[in-house]
Design a protein that fits this description.
Shape: globular
Largest sheet: 9 strands, mixed
Mean pLDDT: 95
Distance between the termini: 45 Å
Length: about 290
């Protein structure tokens, strides 16, 4: 087993409701090149015993620690994981992603060029971008150019960054404001101008594509919580132009699609109301 005093890297995996995917992630980590002492922290938000069979086959091969917590929330789980982490480098792969053989090696090499955070990209089985459309070339991130260059699930981050900047626990999966916690976190870091961040498209994670069937029940639930998160982000950082642009865009989309696609019309109507409610309710937390 790894001597805990020598651990350099902590892989923090918050998880809820996934068994097969956790097994696949751990299997991919087992096959990856990791040349430094590391640990895997599973922040388990499930009922007792839910992950037992998924984890048992790896406990003899991987340095896994399981923390059964009594709270729900992705951001809170990440912050909790950092407090428990022994490594000076941390990352937060999604519980439904997989890594490639060279993911960690490329991440460490990029981080050691003098950066405090480095981000990679998410791809599907054929190499196409998932989650978002990433920029093609590597670049240093700033508050003005960060779009297309980050997803927090791909980050390699020096733990010292968390001395000042934790994830906002009002945001992210498991909360009313169910998205944009990564944007908020990175924007605050880069606004401070003490940390350097970089995007390297050669750092790759497999992530299944998000199914975008606008109008079904799951898509309506997802867009509602996501856009409440968008409203919270815009209110918090005074992104009024960004907020109003999206608000009016989806308002007109909901009207236009009434003629040609009623399901999409409902989808954009839900998005419109979520933006308004998210802005209103965010006043309680800001």
């Amino acid at each position: 087993m790894v001597n805990e005093a020598n651990i350099v890297y902590s892989i923090i995996v918050p998880t809820i409701g996934r068994k097969r995917e956790i097994s696949e992630l751990l299997a991919s980590i087992k096959e990856a090149d990791i040349a430094i002492p590391y640990e895997i922290l599973i922040i388990d938000q499930n009922a007792d015993g839910f992950l037992e069979n998924s984890l048992n086959e790896f406990l003899n091969y991987l340095p896994i620690k399981v923390f059964n917590v009594d709270f729900k929330g992705l951001s809170k789980a990440k912050n909790f994981g950092v407090l428990k982490a022994r490594g000076e480098i941390v990352s937060f792969p999604d519980d439904d992603c997989k890594v490639f053989k060279d993911t960690f090696e490329t991440g460490f090499e990029t981080l050691n060029r003098g950066y405090d955070l480095v981000f990679g990209k998410c791809i599907d089985e054929v190499g196409d971008d998932t989650v978002l459309i990433f920029k093609k070339e590597p670049f240093e991130l700033s508050t003005k150019n960060m779009m297309g260059g980050f997803v927090e699930a791909t980050v390699f981050c020096r733990k010292k960054v968390f001395e000042k900047f934790q994830f906002d626990e009002n945001m992210g999966a498991g909360t009313f404001f169910g998205a944009e916690e990564g944007y908020d976190w990175l924007y605050r870091i880069l606004s401070n101008q003490e940390s350097k961040a970089f995007f390297n498209p050669d750092i790759k994670f497999y992530h299944p594509p998000v199914v975008a069937n606008k109008g079904d029940t799951s898509s309506l639930k997802r867009v509602f919580t996501y856009r409440c998160g968008t409203a919270y982000l815009c209110h918090k950082h005074k992104f009024l132009f960004k907020y109003l642009t999206r608000l009016y865009l989806v308002f007109f989309a909901s009207i236009i699609y009434k003629i040609v696609d009623s399901r999409k019309s409902v989808y954009y109507a839900v998005e419109y109301h979520a933006l308004k409610l998210g802005w209103l309710f965010s006043k309680k937390y800001l």
